[in-house]
Amino acid sequence: MTETKKSANALKRSLGLTSLIAICVGMVVGQGPLITILQGIGINATGFFIAMLIAFVLALGYVFTFTELALMMPKAGGISTYTEVAVGHLPAIVVTIAGYLGMAVFAGAADLFLLDYVMDALYPNTFSRFGLWIYIIIIVLNILGVEVFAILQNLLALIMLTALFIIGITGVSSSEIQDIPFQNLFSSLGTLDWNILSLTVLAMWAFMGMEFVCPLIEETKQPEKNLPKAMIISSIILLIVYGLVALAGYHKVPGEKLVESSIPHWVLVKSIFGENARFLMAVLAITAAATCFSTGIASISRMLYGMGKNNQLPSAFRLIHPKFKTPWFGILFQCSLAIAVYIIFQDSQNVIILLMISCSAIFLLVYIMAHLDLIILRKKYPDLSRPYRSPLYPVLQILGIIGMIYLLINNSPTPEMTKSVYLNTGLVVGITGLYAVLWIKFRMKKPFFKGEPIEEVH
């Protein structure tokens, strides 16, 4: 391939440290984590803060793992590339399509529903399919180029973090007579038991998704320096921000109100600022949805692009826009699926929530696979130069695998829902596995479980 052709089919390096942090944080600061965190506080506040610390340690484990893997193989394919080298094409295709594309499609549809629901609660009968219009705008901006995406993501992350800091600090510093005193948090420390581990399932939502920055590594300036910094700084920012929001929720709202509400973040905002805070809540909801939409679209389209380059998906996924240098086909493909699910299940939003939880269970399999990839690659390539090495190896990886398996087993609040989650998870993995088997056997003509030489992707 000539240099001109290579350049025409290559991504452009435009992302610095600030943009990477905005991407990491932006993927996580959505309405979903706010709901799970505040409901966790309502269930057992003292236990939940301990669960947040456990979740933070688990998150650091996957942050260190993904950072080492990404810098070993700095390609847009992300987990697909790492798994392809570690254990072969079949697991690589299944874990990427089921774990990321499937999750993005159903979670994206659920976020669309949630934004519609919140806006209708704030301004009844005023907006029609508001979330869909926001989604379409984000799609267009992502196609227009990584610079546009970076500017958008920086702005969205700044607005979102500012709003959460204001809510957290204002709520924590409140001294109204009906506020719940913080010293009550410590009075129940002696009664805690192993049941607090179940709260880690809710707390983990505060940190899931930071690795979405890794597939953007081909568009990152000085990735050896900026990627580790971005992911570690983002972890700390999320712990502080969500910790403040959790403290505010405990201080301002009785636990039963947080648990009973389907939008407890609106209950918290009202308790701090009153009914006149509708505009602040609308900004929070729109920004939360937009930043998740934007990061998910940017990251997963690069995964699909990388899989197309590796011949794991049809060649259309390799297409780069000649002017904007973005993987436009992958962007339109994943977003079309999300919009289709949103329209098909317009009157069955509970089904979408169930599917989102199901795909989140597959998401945990991604983290388990990443830890296994790192352990296997350390054994297969012990002398390979690594720009970054995970600290405390293999302790964090083993703890991460055990922790993710526990979260996978305790993925939902009721046995009935757990059964449905396993059924849906098996269905998604099964369909993806069937595609992978047929594609590898008849199109790629390669072994299912033979890792590719790292030199081919390095």
Description:
By secondary structure, the chain is mainly alpha-helical. It has a single domain (15-383, 393-448), classed as Amino acid/polyamine transporter I (Up-down Bundle). Helices cover 71% and strands 0% of the residues. The chain contains 18 helices and no strands. It has helices spanning 3-8, 17-28, 31-43, 45-72, 79-86, 89-122, 130-143, 146-173, 184-187, 200-203, 223-252, 255-260, 264-273, 278-309, 328-344, 349-380, 395-409, 415-444. Helix 3 crosses helix 11 and helix 6 (89-122) crosses helix 7. The chain is globular, with a radius of gyration of 21 Å. It starts with a helix and ends in a 14-residue tail after the last helix. Mean pLDDT is 87; it is low at 1-7.
